Amino acid sequence: MKRVLKVCLASALFFLYRAIDPWCRFREVSILAYHSISDAPLYTAVTPEVFRAHLSRLKAGGYSFVSLRDVIAFLDGSPLPKRAVALTFDDGYADFETTVLPILDQFEAPATVFIVGDEAASRSALGNALPLLDQNALTRVRAHPRIEIGYHARTHANLRTLSGGALQDEVRTPFGARYFAYPGGNYSNEAVDAVRAAGYEAAFSIKPTHVRAASDHFLLPRFVITKDPVMRDILFYASRAAAWYRALTRFV
User: Fold this and answer.
1) Is 225:34 a contact under the CB 8 Å cutoff?
2) Cβ(91)–Cβ(112) under 8 Å?
3) Which of 85, 104, 134, 113 is nearest to 178 (CA)?
4) Which of 54, 190, 204, 243 is the most exposed place for a label (fewest CB within 10 A)?
């Protein structure tokens, strides 16, 4: 029953959003966080067919695909399309090269993939055995003109539990990455300071809301895309209705 009520609430909010959008002229700058694009039986894995449908639906809905560099420029005063979506992929699974890239190329969509530094030490935290991008694949991906490689910590550790040298070692970029994604969305004030001190330009959480002109460069929000059937329509995720839904169901 609770699931049915949530679906009804999401539908009602999206209907409301579509009804008032022409007058309110909402500006939506959304960052979507995917993980594996595969048929893996994981809650965070999205099938290639669904991912392709997401991009098609966004494009048909009037959204423009932008890079994280575009989003940071927006925070610094540069314009973005009224409906802008940036695509990110956490953990650095091998299917990013074999499956994701051809679909991104089809839509000429830029993206950022956040990789871990130590695959073996990250396995426990990742909780799966899916192959990650190896060094040869990373070299090929890095050469792609629309792809940025960011850092997702050395071992995908919970940064909220670390401090001092251990924290600094976890967030230090081994290859000059511009952007950092907090593993599991976990961070502390000390972790944010450590990421800033490590020289990154921006860092990303998984707070499900939209980027605003006044958003903190080191706590930028992202919507995590999963198999959740409550919010099946990707246009819902990208719209203001998703933030309303999260606010209303936060304590349910």
Assistant:
1) yes
2) no
3) 113
4) 190
Query: What are the backbone dihedrals phi and psi of residue 27, each rounded to the nearest 5 degrees, phi first?
Result: -100, 120
Query: What are the chain's domains?
Result: 27-238 (3.20.20.370)
53-69 CB burial, b ≥16 within 10 A, e <16: ebbeebeeeebebbbbb
What burial letters (b/e) apply to 14-28, b meaning 16+ CB within 10 Å?
A: beebeeeeeeeeebb
Per-residue pLDDT of the chain (252 residues; tens, 9 = 90+): 577 787 788 889 888 988 898 888 778 899 999 999 999 999 999 999 999 999 999 999 999 999 999 999 999 999 999 899 999 999 999 999 999 999 999 999 999 999 999 999 999 999 999 999 999 999 999 999 999 999 999 999 999 999 999 999 999 999 999 999 999 999 999 999 999 999 999 999 999 889 999 999 999 999 999 987 555 688 888 888 888 888 888 755
Global pTM exceeds 0.90:
yes
Q: Amino acid letter at 101?
A: L
